[in-house]
Every structure is written in structure tokens, then in C-alpha cells.
Design a protein that fits this description.
It is a single chain. By secondary structure, the protein is an alpha/beta fold. It is built from 13 helices and 16 strands. It has helices at about 5-10, 50-60, 75-85, 95-100, 115-125, 140-150, 170-180, 215-220, 230-235, 245-260, 350-370, 390-400, 410-430, and strands at about 25-30, 40-45, 65-70, 90-95, 105-110, 130-135, 160, 185-195, 270-275, 290-295, 300-305, 310-320, 320-325, 330-335, 380, 435. Helix 6 links the parallel strand 6 and strand 7. Helix 2 (about 50-60) packs across helix 12 (about 390-400), helix 6 (about 140-150) runs antiparallel to helix 13 and helix 7 packs across helix 10. The radius of gyration is 25 Å and the shape is elongated.
Amino acid sequence: MAQVSRRSFLQVGTGTALASLVPGRHFVLAAQQATAPTGEQVRFASIGVGIQGSSLLRAAGTLPQAQCVAACDLYDGRHTLAREIAGQGISTTRHYHEILDDKNIECVVVAVPDHWHKQITVDALGAGKDVYCEKPMSHSIADGEAMVRAVTGGKNFVQVGSQRVSSPLFIKAKSLFDEGAIGDLLQVELMLGRNSPGGAWQYPVLPDLSPATLDWETWQGNVPKKGFDPIAFSRWRCFHEYGTGMAGDLMVHLLSGMQYVTGINAIPDRAYSIGGIRRWKDGRNMPDIQTTAFMYGYVPVLIRLTQGTETPEVTRILGSKGILEVTNNSVILSPQSGVDRSPDYGINGFPEVLHAAYEKQWHREHDPEFAKHMLDEATAWHGPSWDDLHPHLANFFDSVRTRKPVAEDVIFGHHAAAACHMANNSYFEGKELRRT
């Protein structure tokens, strides 16, 4: 297969922590600070105050740019939780349209199960609200396309909640990539593994869940209806009717980081996914082991996900001049000269006289240069975890006030989510999928 340069691909196609082994250079990246608010605080509402929604609400409460004035959730206990986090003065409701009808609310943070992302986002945009929508942006490719259409030509925007694009680590990695530090882009390897009940979404079930405290009928949305099911509500990521499994929970983060660093802002051309339910045989229908191969133009992207073995989370970008690797709190550049550092072993097939002559000539030509550059030294930068919610939320609220572009817009979010849907569809259909 012909190789393609990093820049030409972007024009056409729209591991091991070496720092611990090589005595290279180490630097510390500063965390991004929330900027001071310009004018009045942004008045926002949270729609969904569950595990991620409450984390977003807590993080937003520390930012000077914004003020939470309302919250919506179909489970009454989360009204109490929202007031505990944002203050007793906020209003709470089960009905998100009451939030959208309030002209004093400028934007909404949507952190609901995946199968509700599209409808709430489209309705919020129609009501003139800007939207922060949790990842994955959509529950299907068709949903993502509808969300893109809802933004196109309008005054309001969507920022997707996959916070790597606001991380100092990924910003540094992107800078290095754009400078050509690893040469031509050849392939990408992404991996993440968990090994715990919590990591496999076996979350505790709320003890007071009942049809009286939860609007179960509305929560199900437009999926086939079933009787009241506390497990489905509490562990919805396990079921494709409501969630998108490891692809939507884990893979989308890895793909978002890859898209941001490399500039590959596109739906993959091909996807093939294999795996199964090997560890958590608890009634789920989403795999707990999943390996996916994508092709973006000429660039293969390989992703390994598991909920059965704890492994480091790694984004590894391989190029003709070296490797760029991002982990949870570091970015490592490992340059490679791409040249022989000793006579090629192919001369082992030379007769002795020719072997000796070739070796002598090779050392005469190359040794002086190698004496100047004894090692390809790795350089590491360390910084706050990419999982920090604060800078990504700050970016969103700043954009609401200034109308400057967001860090992760609806097109970017659609491309990352669409790849996850292709991976899941390939898994369930048992075949390679191609973008049409």
C-alpha cells in the first residue's frame, strides 16, 4: 500500500512510556485556568443530573463564567441532588420543555442516556439555546445527521463533551504533530482496558427507584417499551437500546483525541469490529471485549477495548520520524532517525573480502555523524489529566458569551460518534462496513 504524507492526507481525506526507559527530557505542562467572565455570567440549565451530569454540574459550579439556574431529570432524587450541588434556589422539573421555554436560560448541558441526545439537542436548538451535549453525540448515524442539520444555518451551536480537545496534553501533542515531529502519518494505535464492576457499568441501583419516583415511560423514549426495569435505568450503557456500549463510552474519547491531534475530521472509510461478552454475563447485550480496525484514507487506526483486563490508556500515533504517545497525564515524543546505525545485516551474504571492504567503507561514511547524535532521545511532557472537565466547560461557556467557535463542534462530534456506530454495527452484523 502506498504511503501518504501527513499533510497530503489531510488535504485529500477530509505503549510503552519510553520516558521511563530513555533518560530524555521532561517538562511539565500548566493546567488551563478558567478565564474571568466577560459581562454577566451565562445562565444555564442541566438536563440530566446522573453520574456524568452531576460531575458536569459540580465542575461548572467552580467556573466564574456560568451560573446554573435550573435542572431537569426524570428521577426525583436527582432534583434533590441538583439543589445540593447548585443551591436550593434553582428550579427543578421532570419536563425539559419547561427549561427550553424559559427565555432567561441561555444554554443547556445535556447529559442524558444516548438515545435521548438527538431529540433534546434538536429541541434545544429550536428554542434558541446553545447546547453542551455529552459524548457520544448521537445514538445512531441518522441521529447525528439530524443534529448536524439542526445546527446548519442557525445561530446556535453544539459543543460535544469529549474533553480531550481542551486538554493541555492533547494541545501539546497536536502542536508537535503539526510541526512535523513524527513526519508522515502512517498509523494509529488506541487502547483502553478496565477490570472492575464499576468500570463495566455495574453501578449500584438507587434504593428508592419506583414508577412513583421515576417517569419510566418517558425515559424509554421511542425504543420498544418494557416493564419498569431499575437495572436498565441504572446501567443503560450495557444495552444497545439506550446506549452505545464501550464504543460510545470509551472509544469515542480515543477517536476524539486522534481526530484532534492528526486533523482527521472525517467518518472512516471502512470499519471491522470483533469481540464478545466474555466477563460480564449479566444480561447485557453490548460486548465487554471489542477490537476494531478503521481505515481513514490510507491510515489504519486500530483500537483495543476491554472490560476484563486493566490496561493503560494510550493514544499512539506512528510516523516516519517517530512516535507520539499520549497517556492520561503525559505526552511523549520518541523520535526515530529511520536509518541504519550499523552495516546492514544483508552483507552477511557477502564473501569475506567484499564484506570487510563494505563494512570499512560504511563506518568511514557514517561514524562521524553518529558520534554527534548517539541516541534518539525521547522527550516527555507531564500535565493534568485529559479527563479534567473544567477547561472544556469553560470553553463552552466562553463561546456562549463571545460567539467564538467551540473546541468540539457538531461536525467533529458527528464524525467521532459515527465511527463508533460503524464499529458497533460491524460487531452485530459480523462483517466489514464501508462508508457509502
